[in-house]
# Entry
Amino acid sequence: MTSRRPFSGSRCNTMLPRLMCLFLICRVAFIATVEADAAARRSPDQVLADAEKSFERGEFGRGIEIVRIAIEQAKRARNLGQQTDALLMLAQGYDRIGRRNEVVGVLEEALKLAPADRTPDQSTRIQDQLAIAYWRTGQA
# Structure
């Protein structure tokens, strides 16, 4: 009488890694959804602080997603100052992962939104960062 192992054979050897990958993908998606819901309940300033912490830990993809939440919150609140600040942080995140073309687009949008009642320093800072972004992408 031979004993059969329930999880043996080539079919199981290929299914187990696939199931593990599927589990990890679902887990990451669930965690991202939970974090997005939690971020949506906080103020844009708190959300941007969380994004900055993610950037400091080297979690740039996560930080970028958090910044996008802050941008949407600022848009809904019609707060141009917070939206501009969030766009600047988004440009930093894109720059850190090497997505230079996206940096240019985000900074151009930030420059259009920079509120007139803010200090001219912010507008100058955006223009400086935009000039650097143009240079890095060969658009200068």
Observations:
- The radius of gyration is 22 Å.
- Residues 10-40 form the longest helix (31 residues).
